Amino acid sequence: MPISTQRPRVFISYRWESAAHIEWVEAFAHELIAREVDVILDQFEAVATSHPDVRTWSQREGAIARLVSRMGICHAFLPIFTPGYLDRIGYRAGRPKRSTEQGWVFDEFQESLLLGNQRRIETVAILRQGEFVDLPPPFHEGNTLDLRTEDDYDRKLLGLALYLHERRAVPYVVTPSDVDPFWEV
């Protein structure tokens, strides 16, 4: 792992789908932290609905808005793609989907697109469930990290951490022309 004075910082976006999925996301975040990557994740912030300091809807909304605004200090945005996540961002099965239940996942994804277009953040997609054909453009098998199984999980995670360390100071944006999967070490 390269030694640097500035660690890469990532914002992890996911949908609260099940206890098992939420636990997987938290474990994934801790594995990145162990590889010297700073992580912004809602579970590490006081925004959970069950948190005792978040008593009213307006307090919760304000806390979540502050969390999403922290994306602007990140090097990379990591959406954890699942069928439920794709539904919430309004995209499913290769075609746009109109959803009235988009919520914060939709806002996080839209903010990442805005910052990406300004070359202020890179999106590194993680496929946790579903199929590559279901992903919105520009994501595909060549530029999305496949973590649907535990096969080569440690190698892929190490490759992701190394990639994030190498790219932390460079303005970038994901494009369909990315041909070399960054997790291949």
Structural summary, described in words:
It is a single chain. The longest helix has 16 residues, at 19-34. The protein has a single domain, classed as Rossmann fold (3-Layer(aba) Sandwich), CATH 3.40.50. The strands form two sheets. Strands 1, 2, 3, 6, 7 and 8 form a six-stranded parallel β-sheet that branches. A two-stranded antiparallel ribbon has the order 4-5. It is of the alpha/beta class. The chain is globular, with a radius of gyration of 16 Å. It is 35% helix and 14% strand. 30% of the residues are buried.
Q: Remind me, CATH topology?
A: Rossmann fold
CATH C-level label: Alpha Beta
Q: Largest sheet, described in full? A: 6 strands, parallel
Radius of gyration: 16 Å
Average pLDDT level? 78
Name the poorly predicted regions: 169-185
| Helical residues, percent | 25-40%
Strand content is 5-15%
- The CATH architecture would be 3-Layer(aba) Sandwich
Number of continuous helical runs: 5
First-to-last CA distance: 12 Å
How many β strands by DSSP?
A: 8
The gross shape turns out to be globular
Spell out the helices and strands N to C.
EHEHEHEEHEEEH
Q: Give the oligomeric state.
A: single chain
Number of domains: 1
Global structural class: alpha/beta
Features:
single chain; alpha/beta; 8 strands; two-stranded antiparallel ribbon; Rossmann fold; globular; 185 residues; disordered C terminus
